[in-house]
Amino acid sequence: PDPRRGWLAVLGEPGVVMTEIRNVEQELSRFNARLLAAAAFVLVGFGLLGARLVHLQVVKHEELSTQAENNRIAVVPIVPNRGLIVDRNGVVLANNYSAYTLEITPSKVDDLEGLIGRLGEVIEIQPRDRKRFKRLMEESKSFESLPIRTKLTDDEVARFTAQRFRFTGVDIKARLFRNYPLGETGSHLLGYIGRINQAEKEAIDDTEDAANYRGTEYIGKLGVEQSYEAELHGTTGVEEVETSANGRPVRRLKSNPATPGNKVVLSIDIRLQALVEQMFGDRRGALVALDPRSGEVLAFVSKPTFDPNLFVDGIDSESWKELNESVDKPLLNRALRGTYPPGSTFKPFMAIAALNSGKRSPSQVIFDGGTFQFGNHTFRSHGDAGLGPVDMVRSIVKSSNVYYYSLANEMGVDLMHEQLEPFGFGRKTGIDVEGEVTGVLPSTEWKRRMYKKPEQQRWYAGETISLGIGQGYNNFTMLQLASATATLVSGGQRYKPRLVREVQDVVTGERRVLVNDALPPLPLKPEHVELINRALYGVTQEGTSVRSFLGATYKSGGKTGTAQAIGVKANEKYNAAKLEEAQRDHSLYMAFAPLEAPSIAVAVIVENAGWGSDSAAPMSRRVFDYVLNGTVPSEEDLALTREGKSTTPVGKPRPATEVLLPGAAAIALPPAVPPTQRVAQGESQGAPAK
To answer: CA-CA distance, 690 to 685, in Å (whole number)?
Structure first.
């Protein structure tokens, strides 16, 4: 309206004018305060932003730059090729081959069962494949890639690749697989490899080798594969790959290749190993043959065997059940872990213990009337048929039980333990594979440790008597018996048995000989050793193994043994026909050859096969023929030996080089060189060739 009125009103009302001026000043003051606050807030914000930028760009530059690079670059481990295992003549016992596998990463799959069902429409997936995959899932983490099918054909690879878009979390990978070309031959000494389980993974993570096992899914489980894992595994390489936003590789930036595992050369002669396994046939038992001059193991047999190829990519439940529940226990390494009473093969060691301790002289005569009476118990010998007067040599040649019953009674258990423990009885030999057991060489202290009740801890004098003939608490492995035999016949020289003789670097070609240093020798008198060896030679000439060694072109010594699998009551006689097979006596033989300069010592047991002269001694003869003459028995003779019906070899022996190994019909094998011929060619008799 009328501006004059307003002007007049202001002019006419000074109190109102002053109020209005004060209000404007207050508003202006508040505005300025807000403006300053906003400016301060902005400045603080920009300050914080600037500080953060400085922290990220300057302080954290290296770390964030590395992270950014890692988002672009993936570091992929390159798993090395596992080293080869060969025998002493270069025959390949374990190698590798490449094959495609169909693998699933469970963490990337929502409906696993449905996915496997759809996969089965494209590639055949059998029930055992599903069971194996389920077991692998239980042992592994969900983000690991697990094989549902291995060893795919080219046609199967092509079919899946064409429909790959349908299967999230599924991929085909090329992997190396371990292969044992000779199948079951030597399975117990070779062992096998298998997928690393959670316990093994945790153990590896706690060692310095954790980085070397990145990407590795397999590890040695038994035998040489396990004990020489560090040599066979190799060194893992790395590859830097530039990846796209979805993680797929675009190009390789740089690579540090893996170093393959080293070649492990065994002391084993695989032809000899295969021959012995064939001689066992379907029977159970073990044989160990080693060189007394070096401790090298020439044959390390446990029967029955198994196929290690079954374990490489996960054994199926049916095969595992068959192996694990078999009454023959094919997974038991009898040479390393099977313990048996040595029977009469123990007598030569009792004799040397008597000589060392002064309890018996070689000429002392004991009358063997067929039985030995101790208290109210009668200890029998040879069906109660006595041998008459026997001295020490005759006691071994004719295997007098009465002689050693009385000797055990005179010596007592603790003196026997003191004298025989240095030969390796009742303790580990130290062989270069894991899992060896100690066996039992009893003593009064041992019995106190073994039993809890006071009445069980007491040692009774009657328990000592049967120890003299290798019965009672005595229980040893064939490895221990072979090692003790080597020590005895070589005059006390001792070595730790060794399965691996050298390791060859596959990159440089350097051969590292694993020299087996000699242990301190036993203080055996040469005249005592000569007497025992002469007695053992007599066993092959007029004793229990004479039929097996007729016509041999060399001189050897040995001792048969027949060990009880079950006890027989004092008023009963042993009758094999009335017993089940598993209750019958074991057949044993310990031996060495040649007599003048032993280069091989053998210990063999054939379970529940009866007299040592029936099964064990004939096998030893054929082992010596191979090693010393380079021959193997005729097919006719081999068939008889498998049935425990051979004595003197029949038919025409064949050259060892003409015999093909199992599964090796198409493989050109290098000629085998028997140990005696290797010595003639210049190899040291005291240690492996360097």
So the answer is: 12
Q: What percent of the chain has pLDDT over 90?
A: 58
Active site residues: 344
Hunting for tokens 């044959």 — which residue is that?
299
Residue 122: how many other CB atoms lie within 10 Å: 17
Over 60: is that where the pLDDT of 480 sits? yes
Cβ pair 598, 592 in contact under 8 A: yes
Q: Say if residue 301 is exposed, middle or buried (CB neighbours under 10 Å; 0-12, 13-18, 19+).
A: buried
Tell me, what amino acid is at 531?
L
Residue 236 to residue 80: CA distance in whole angstroms: 5
As a whole number of angstroms, the distance between CA 512 and CA 690 comes to 8
Q: Given the DSSP bridges, would you call strands 654-655 and 631-632 parallel, antiparallel or unpaired? A: antiparallel
Query: Element (H or E) spanning 457, and its range?
Result: helix 454-457
Q: What is the DSSP letter of 344?
A: G
Return the DSSP state at 518.
Answer: P
In angstroms, the CA 287 to CA 303 distance is 9
| Per-residue buried b or exposed e for 539-575, using 16+ beta carbons within 10 Å of the residue's own CB | bbeebbbbebbeebeeebbbbbbbbbbeeeeeeeeee
User: Can you say whether residue 14 is alpha, beta or left, with left for phi > 0 and alpha for psi between -120 and 50 degrees?
Assistant: alpha
Note the pLDDT tens digit of each residue in 148-182. Answer: 888 898 899 999 999 888 898 899 988 788 999 99
Give pTM, 2 decimals: 0.82
> Could you tell me the sign of the dihedral formed by the alpha carbons of 445, 447, 453, 459, in that order?
negative
Integer Cα distance of 419 and 408 in angstroms: 12
Q: Count Cβ atoms within 10 A of the Cβ of residue 517 and give its class: 0-12 exposed, 13-18 middle, 19 or more buried.
A: exposed
Q: How far apart are CA 549 and CA 556, in angstroms?
A: 8
**Amino acid (1-letter code) at residue 479:** L
Strands (E), 196-329: 218-220, 237-243, 249-256, 263-266, 285-290, 297-303
pLDDT of the residue at 175: 79
Cα angle value 462/467/468 (rounded, 5°)? 105
Q: Where are the alpha helices (DSSP H) in 472-556?
A: 478-489, 526-542
Beta-carbon neighbour count of residue 317 at 10 Å? 14
Residue 289 phi, psi (nearest 5):
-120, 130
Note whether 488 and 581 are within 8 A (CB): no
| Angle (CA) 377 379 384, round 5° | 125
pLDDT of 484 reads 98
The residue type found at 45 is G
Q: How far apart are CA 251 and CA 241, in angstroms?
A: 6
- DSSP character for 421? G
pLDDT value at 440 more than 80: yes
Contact (Cβ atoms closer than 8 angstroms) between residue 492 and residue 483: no
Residue with tokens 């902005």: 42
d(CA 288, CA 477) in angstroms, rounded, equals 10
CB atoms within 10 A of CB 412: 17
Contacts 24+ apart (CB under 8 A), 16-19: none
pLDDT digit string, tens, across residues 180-221: 999 999 999 999 998 888 888 888 888 888 888 887 888 999
**Residue 417 · residue 443 · CB < 8 Å:** yes
Burial 356-380 (b: 16+ CB within 10 A, else e): beebbeeeeebebebebebeeeebb
CA–CA dist 234, 507 (Å, integer): 11
d(CA 622, CA 549): 9
DSSP 123-137: S---HHHHHHHHHHH
Residue 26 — φ and ψ, nearest 5°? -65, -45
Residue 190 is inside which H or E element, if any? helix 187-190
Tokens of 349: 């060691």
Alpha carbons within 13 angstroms on the beta-carbon side of residue 340 total 34
